[in-house]
Specification:
By secondary structure, this protein is mostly beta strands. Helices cover 3% and strands 44% of the residues. The strands form 2 sheets. It has a 38-stranded parallel sheet that branches. Keywords: Repeat, Ubl conjugation pathway.
Length: 559
């Protein structure tokens, strides 16, 4: 049938398959766009290896664009606008394989103001001391936007492609998805290093990134702003050497997933904000400034290796009127500055079942500035300062952890505003300093713990805890030392075989001592406080086998 060139292509019939070839100089089609214009829906376009300089516009469904040979390199270069622009209807598909996209972005025209896209909602992360121009904040997407690939609808996949911005002269994103679904597989997306660029920028769309490398972007590797209905998956990728962040997740109640990926040598490895509920699973997150930065968000951080980050391995913090939650479980965190830091008055993370919180340069877990953490069933050991440190004004529920061999106190906390702290059913042992150190603490509970082989078991200074039903034994100095103006309740504890003193009450301290067992210590109890205490009643109400050191009779009532 002879076709009338003035008429549109005939409708695509299911089962038919058409092949077009682009071979500059000798082929039927000299440019990729010529072949697309001639193609009917469902056509496969095979492109020979050479350099192409014209942008490509795809608005026909079902097209497949491939390089002629698997080892060949089809290069498309452009200096302004998108190199490839795809605009399809929902459900329509397009596949691109084996291309190299090179954008030089020579235009220095100022990008238009963002308009009504939510103010600083989009990409405010680009504000950095290392970024001279906060360009992405002002980005308005249009068909003239500088980028390598722009997807505006449809179901698009790119495979075995390279995107390079290494010659770019002005800021730009490499890949933008504004609508639809984009699948990226076995691709490399390289930034410029000096000029601000973003590897992948997604706005309220679906995206799948598989087995790809995103690196050297000055304004972030992957930035995802998503809704709860969007499907976001990043899997088996390498996200390396990006400034600001490797991956940035935004969008309230959205649940993007990043799994089995390597995130290294970025500023923030992964940043999560705006009440996003990202899931981070099975990743190696190493040698970033911060491993995971959680700001006013609620992520699930599971089964990751988080090591060697120059600041925090995981940093939870609430800012302004926002709230930060989140749960981290079954991770290994070591050789960071602090493994985990929780910060801010509305910060309530759960830190549970992490098998290795160890060998960090400072604390294993640090809670500060009014935060409250739940710390449950973790292995916390051999950190260079404290195992768990609760800074004044913060609090925690600490339960069923093994906390041992830390260079300073295994657990240290204090300040009247941390009066909600509970330390329950932990094994706290082999510390080079105190098992538990409580300085200027309000009402807290230390209950049913095994505390042994530390320098001192428990040391209180100007504190008011309830210490009950603990086994405190084989510590190198005292079992319990009560100093300053402390007034604890010490009830139903076993204090055994401590090298110096079982229970030592000194300075101006006082308190309630009831039904404690003290034996096998060098001195079972030393009550040398200047405050008045009823020694006779203490002896009667506790089970003491051995020496009790007493103060001068003029100071304490012994009647």
């Amino acid at each position: 049938m002879e076709m009338n060139p003035g008429q549109p292509d005939p409708p695509f019939e299911e089962g038919l398959y058409k092949l077009l070839q682009v071979v500059p100089g000798i082929g039927p089609y000299q440019t990729i766009q010529e072949a697309i214009n001639a193609a009917s829906p469902g056509t496969k376009i095979v492109v020979s290896s050479t350099l192409y300089t014209q942008p490509v516009f795809i608005n026909k469904p079902g097209l497949v664009l491939e390089s002629q040979e698997a080892s060949s390199e089809v290069q498309i270069t452009c200096s302004a606008g998108p190199i490839i622009y795809v605009s399809l209807n929902p459900g329509e598909t397009c596949r691109i394989k084996g291309f190299k996209l090179i954008h030089t972005a020579v235009s220095r025209k100022r990008l238009e103001a963002l308009g009504n896209l939510g103010g600083e909602t989009y990409l405010d992360m680009c504000e950095s001391s290392r970024t001279s121009e906060h360009w992405v904040r002002n980005l308005k997407l249009s068909r003239s936007t500088n980028c390598a690939l722009w997807v505006d609808g449809g179901n698009v996949s790119i495979e075995d492609c390279q995107v390079t911005l290494s010659s770019a002269k002005s800021p730009l994103p490499a890949i933008v998805i504004n609508k639809g679904h984009l699948k990226i597989e076995n691709c490399e997306i390289k930034g410029q290093g000096e000029v601000p660029t973003v590897g992948i920028y997604t706005i309220e769309s679906d995206i799948t990134v598989l087995k790809s490398k995103i690196y050297k972007h000055r304004s972030g590797g992957i930035i995802v702003y998503s809704k709860p209905t969007n499907k976001i998956l990043i899997s088996e990728c390498q996200i390396i050497g990006n400034v600001n962040c490797g991956v940035y997740f935004l969008g309230e109640d959205s649940r993007p997933v990043i799994q089995r990926s390597k995130i290294a040598h970025n500023e923030d490895g992964i940043k999560i904000a705006q009440y996003n509920c990202a899931q981070i699973k099975g990743c190696e997150i190493k040698q970033n400034e911060k491993g995971v930065n959680v700001e006013n968000a609620d992520p699930f951080i599971f089964l990751n290796l988080i090591r060697g980050n120059r600041e925090e391995g995981v940093y939870f913090h609430s800012e302004g009127d926002g709230r930060c939650d989140g749960k981290m479980m079954s991770n290994d965190l070591y050789e960071n500055e602090n493994a985990v830091v929780c910060c801010g008055p509305a910060c309530f993370p759960i830190i549970e079942g992490n098998g290795k919180v160890a060998k960090n340069k400072k604390a294993g877990i640090k809670v500060m500035d009014g935060a409250h953490a739940v710390i449950l069933r973790n292995e916390i050991y051999e950190n260079k300062t404290q195992g768990i440190l609760l800074v004044k004004g913060s609090s925690a529920h600490i339960e069923k952890n093994n906390i041992y061999s830390n260079k300073k106190a295994n657990v240290a906390f204090g300040g009247s505003e941390n009066s909600d702290t509970t330390i329950v059913e932990n094994s706290i042992f082999r510390g080079q300093a105190e098992g538990i150190f409580n300085l200027e603490g309000g009402t807290s509970w230390i209950k049913r713990n095994q505390i042994y082989e530390n320098s001192d078991g428990i040391v209180l200074i100007d504190s008011y805890p309830v210490i009950t039903m603990n086994s405190i034994y084989d510590n190198r100095r005292s079992g319990i030392t009560v100093a300053g103006r402390s007034q604890p309740n010490i009830v139903d504890n076993e204090v055994l075989r401590n090298t110096a003193v079982g229970i030592n009450i000194r300075d101006m301290a006082t308190g309630l001592l009831l039904r404690n067992y003290a034996f096998g210590n060098l001195v079972q109890m030393a009550i040398i406080t200047k405050s008045r205490m009823n020694i006779k009643q203490i002896k009667k109400e506790n089970y003491i086998k051995g020496e009790v050191q007493l103060p001068l009779p003029a100071i304490c009532s012994i009647m």
